[in-house]
Amino acid sequence: MNRPEHRDEFDEPAGKVGMNQPSEEGSGGGGKHLLLFVDDEENILHALRRLFRKEPYEILTAVSAKEGLSLIASKPVSLIVSDHRMPEMEGTEFLAKVRERNPDIMRIMLTGYTDMKAAVEAINQSQVYRYISKPWNDDDLRLTVREALRHYDLVQSNRNLNELVKEQNKELYDINRSLESKVRERTKALEMKNLELEAGFQDMLELFMGLMEMKNPALVGHARRAAVLSKAIAAHLSLPEEEQRICEAAALLMDSGILGYPDSLAKKKIEEMDAVEQALWQKHPLLGQATLKRIKRLEPVGQIIRSHHEHYDGSGFPDRLKGERIPLPSQIVAVSDTFDLLLNPPEATGRASVSEALKALEKERGRRFDPAVVHVVGEIIEKVQETISSDEVKVSLEELKEGMTLARDLKTAGGILLLPAQSRLQTAHLEKIQNFHRIDPIIGQITIYRNVKDFNSSGR
Ligand SMILES: [Fe+2]
C-alpha cells in the first residue's frame, strides 16, 4: 500500500463519524455532506480525515469494504473515497456494489500509479467519478471531492425538481379535472335554470293569456296571430333573438291593460264608446305596462306595449311619439295588430283579403306605420299567411291535455255535448271525456286553440 503525503496526527477509531453532528438528511437537503473513507490501513484513514478536517463535511471511516457496505445501508452517505487494494474485497468490486445499492453516491477510487488494470475496472465496472493516484495531492483531492459533491447536489436538485414538477403536474391535472367537472356541473345547473326560467316565462304568458281569455276570448286569438306575425317581422329585420322574443310576447300581451276594465267596457267596440270610455280605453297601453312592470322578466315587454298605439307621424297615444322615437318592436306590434284585425275582425262581416289588408297598410305607410315594417309584411306574408289565418289546430283524443282550450264544442258521436267551445281543459274534464268516450265514442279529431308554447315553436 502506498503512503499518503501527510501523516495523520489524530487517532480516531475507524467506523466512527467525525466532525460536528451527523446529518440524517443527507446533503441534498442543505445539511452537511457525509463522506465515507474506506481503507484497510488506519493511517490512510487518519490522513484523509485530517485532510478534510476543515472542510464542511461529516466523515465516516471504514477499514473494510464489508464495513463500508454496512455503513451506507444505514447512513446517508454522499461520497465514498475508497482504496483499491484491500484484503477481503477489492475497491473496484466494493464500489460496483455501492453503485448497485445506491447509484447516487459519488465514488472516488485511490489507486497506485502502476495499477492501470484497477483504474480501467474502476471506470468500466464501478463507473467511479474519478480515480486518484497515490500518493495524492491534497489540493487535487479536496478539489475533486468538492466537484464530485457539487455534481451530487446537482443530481439531487434535479431529482427534487423533477419530483416537484411531477407533483405539481399531478396537482394541476387534478385541479383541471376538478375544474372541468365543476364547469360541467355549473353549465348543467345553468341550463336547468334557463329551462326553469323559460318554463316560468311561458307559464307567465299562459297565465296572462288565460286571464285575457276570460275577459274577452276574441282578444286572445287575435293576440296569438299578431304574435306570430310580429316575431316573423322581427326575424326578417334581423333583430337579435331576445328582441324577437320581446316582440312576440308584447303582441301576445299588448291589450293586457284591459284586464282592469269592467267587462262592459272590455268587450265594447271603440266606435260605440263615449268620450269618457274612449279616454279610458286609450289608457290601456299604460295600464298594461304598469301591470307587467311588477314582473322583472316582463318589464321590457311592458315598455313595448306602452307604445303599440303610437303613430309614425306622431298622432298616436299615449306619448305622441314620432318616427324613430317609437321603439321598433312597438311599431312591429302596431302593424301586426292592425293587419290581423283587418284579416280577422271581431265581427264576421268586413273581413279583408290579404291583398286588401296589404293595401290598407300601404295607405298608412309613413302616417300610422313605419314604412320599413309595412314593406316587410309584404315580403313575408306568403310564409306566415297560413299560420296567421287560423289559430286553431286539430288533435286526436289521445293528444288532449290539461290546459288546452277547445275552439269548437266537443260532442260524442251520439251528439252529446261534453264541453262547449272556449273550455279550458282540466284533469276532471279529461276524465269525463274518457269516460264518455267508452260509452259513446268521440269520432274524428278535436279542434283546439294553439297555445302560447305552440306559437313559440311554430315561429322558430
Ligand atoms: Fe291595443
What compounds sit in this structure? Answer: fe (ii) ion
Provide the CATH topology of the largest domain. Hypothetical protein af1432
Query: Domains counted in the coordinates: how many?
Result: 3
Low-pLDDT windows of residues = 1-28, 452-460
Briefly, what CATH class of the largest domain?
Mainly Alpha
Largest sheet: 6 strands, mixed
Shape: rod-shaped
Number of helices: 16
What fraction of residues sit in β-strands?
A: 5-15%
Report the structural category.
alpha/beta
Q: Mean pLDDT score, rounded?
A: 83
Just name the CATH architecture of the largest domain: Orthogonal Bundle
Please write the string of helix (H) and strand (E) elements: EEHEHEHEHEHHHHHHHHHHEEEHEH
Q: Tally of extended strands?
A: 10
- Provide the spatial order of strands within the biggest beta sheet: 1-3-2-4-5-6
**From the alpha-carbon coordinates, what is the Rg to the nearest angstrom?**
49 Å
InterPro entries: CheY-like_superfamily, Cyclic_di-GMP/3'3'-cGAMP_PDE, HD/PDEase_dom, HD_GYP_dom, Sig_transdc_resp-reg_receiver
Protein name: Response regulator
Domain HD-GYP: 197-393
Keywords: Phosphoprotein
Explain the overall architecture.
By secondary structure, the protein is of the alpha/beta class. It has three domains: 17-162, Response regulator (Rossmann fold), CATH 3.40.50.2300; 216-390, Hypothetical protein af1432, CATH 1.10.3210; 391-460, Molybdopterin biosynthesis moea protein, domain 2 (Alpha-Beta Complex). The protein has helices at 42-51, 65-74, 91-101, 116-124, 138-215, 217-236, 241-253, 263-266, 275-281, 284-293, 299-306, 328-343, 354-363, 371-389, 427-439, 452-458; strands spanning 17-18, 33-38, 57-62, 79-83, 106-112, 130-134, 392-395, 410-411, 417-419, 446-449. The protein has a six-stranded mixed sheet, with helices on both faces. The protein has a two-stranded antiparallel sheet with strand order 7-10. Strand 2 (33-38), helix 1 (42-51) and strand 3 form a beta-alpha-beta unit. The radius of gyration is 49 Å and the shape is rod-shaped. It binds fe (ii) ion (FE2). Fe (ii) ion (FE2) binds next to loops.
